[in-house]
Amino acid sequence: MEQIIFHIDVNSAYLSWTAVEQLKNGAEVDLRKIPAIIGGNQESRHGVVLAKSPLAKKYGIRTGEPVAQAFRKCPDLVMAPPNHKMYQEYSRRLMEFLQTYTPDIEQVSVDECFMDFTGISYLYLSPVEAAFEIKDAVYEKFGFTVNIGISVNHLLAKMASDFEKPNRVHTLFPEEMAAKFWPLPVESLYGCGKTTAKRLRSLGITTIGALAKADRQMLLSNFKSQGDYLWESANGISSSAVTAESPANKGYGNSVTLPYDVTDTENAHHILLSLCETVGARIRYDKAYISVVQVQIVDNDFHHRCKQLSLPSATNVTEKIYEAACNAFDQGWDHAPIRLLGVSTSKATDESYEQYNLFDQDKFERLSKLNSAIDKIRDKYGDDAIVRACFADTHKN
Fold it and tell me: Model pTM?
């Protein structure tokens, strides 16, 4: 049987999960039904828009724009602060639920995953019927909605899930590409950044269909190796397979798409520290230790760079993870403007085999105890109960 892949994406995840949590705690207003955003501080109006409701979108509010600008567009806008610990918990519950259908789940971010439907297809009349069942079951169990895209590979399934939202099921099979896929502008193609799209348009390529029919050698000469990716993607070619994660190889990671180009090392290190704090807390929550740290860098032309470092000993100390992440970043960055930064870890174990020299042993033992104490305080009183001094301006009331 032909492979069938689902891409499952939570609709406006941060806002949806916040709304569900508020309703559970007695709120009378559903953030999803009013002009609302998840962003920075309500009083100071600092920060950027992380998620928006459908009604906020009608005011022209965009993810990534400054909160102050969003309020100028809609003075009656309601804003709630982000709660990443709560988002991780909703994500964990969702993935555990989806694994009751099949273990072949590949989580790619906090709010989306791929599911290999092939092995359970015999249980359903069609993939569409199964997708509707899963979509409706998620809403009934958790109170939030998802979009599900269906196709024969990762790329087309993801493109399908990005069609009309929210709470929808879409297909994009190869025989549907001419009608559903090729008429879209090149900017809609996953992996085609603004700079790349501008260069394609300068060559007279304005739609995905035109890109699919373009001369492949011409694309290679203009875009080098990226030309192959663009041509294959436009033709719906993707060879990736769903790789379900085994507990023995479990890793921990976090990433952020930036609302502006980061061009200096100090700012990048600052962002890495924020990511490492989340990663470290998750590792300690599972009573685990990791020995490999990887940094992912995506520039404003969608070029990917990854640098991985192995640690001399397993750790769950945020500061050690951060030190390795900074080293990996410094070795891997080519100084192109950055639009996404990610930190991931691997080779997790439930046993610590920390090996320090005489001078570092006391330092890192104290840091490990301090990290654990901070985790407990944040669990009890919220993420903002204790913040590092370098983050004080983004947390002040």
Answer: 0.65
